[in-house]
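Quick question: what would this complex look like in 3D?
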Amino acid sequence: MRIRFDRDACQGHNRCYLLAPELFDVDDEGYAVLRTDGEVPEGLERKAQLAADNCPEYAITVEG
Amino acid sequence: MEAQARCPVTDWATDFDHTDEEYAARAPEIWAQLRQECPVAHSPRFGGTWLPTRHADVSAIAHDTEHFSSRGVIVSVFEPSEPAPVGYAPPITSDPPFHEVARRLLLPAFSPKAIRPLEEPTRRFCGELLDDLLDGTGDGDVVDAATGYAQHIPVRVIAHMLGVPTSDGDRFRVFIHRILETAGQNDPVAPEDTLTWYLAEKIAERREQPADDLISFLLDAEIDGQPLSDDHVLGTVALLLLAGIDTTWSAIGATLWHLAQHPEHRRRLRDEPELLPIAIEEFLRAYAPVTMARKVAKDVELGGVTMREGDWVLLPFPAANRDPEVFERADEVVLDRERNRHAAFGLGIHRCLGSNLARMELTVAVREWLERIPEFELADPDAVRWSTGQVRGPRTLPVRLGRSS
């Protein structure tokens, strides 16, 4: 599974960080930082989906 | 106190009034009806005001800072006093490009990692409030969850953050009531009895004697090597105080109002405490307290209507959160909802700065309440009173205490 994060769309809602801290960190200003190179590590597919499905700004997409 | 009498609303599509008691009591039904019949409603009140009710329209407005200015965010008969892009309470009243400058200054103080250390003091405040609330009570007794609990939590937390006495809380609530709930309808008040006066005093104190708090942080902050103007500091502190109290109080109260009527949800949260963070987002979706507003900056077509420069536009994020186009079973509270792109904290560049703080307070407040009061019900559903204006939550919430386990 691939995950994509659009930093320009992120407004720092922090929903991804709360739901999937294994995949997302936050910077000092509270904007999300994707912790992987785009490949979702095995076992984290559900968390990746949750992060995407709960982003109010549609900044996260998953494929595969 | 209302200085002006208002006409009753006869048609919500052409004459709505968000400061009407009926709107306060049954806003979700009114939004649902408008979404079907007239998704962007208009009212001649307050000099001309629009009310979009679909998620798509609310989102489009929130993301369009070219046509919609934030220089006015509280709809009233008064024109906002300060022009764009700074506005009277930066950054909430600011537009690009100044908005980003003012906001970035504050962001680090409200990031999730910065908020985490406040969780323990919040838990302590909640515990103390529950001690007081339950003192001398027993099963079957009635307490007010809004005035006896919910309303005090954000007051104490914000006072703690600003470094002002928690005992000033009662004054905060008077200021907030005047500014947010009865905007433009108040009798004149003495200057020394205003929020501006109060904050100017506190800011002067911090100038003399800096401390480890937000006021001192702002006095120390710089934009392009220059300290912030006095108006900027005062406006921002006023914003933090106003924006942080009524809103969070409303979310806590509305969640307790829901739980009082849903024993199955109380039980589930007790049996599956790990579900609470997900459930909290669902409460935020279903009972989002905050409706923002904008001033139309340039004529624009939206949702089939033409909005004219100078018109007010309400941004009812709570209505967007109940749009069935975006949310399945939109009017139902689904505790474990997995797809929940709620807009309780707004959308776009003005996303609520205090969202992490509010989320933490709501989570702690509900968890502590359920631990001490696992069983409770509405004492009298008709006695519940919802606030009017742009922040919606129960202001009177009598609940009967059940068996403590």
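Answer marked as accepted. Chain A touches chain B through 19 residues (CB under 8 Å).
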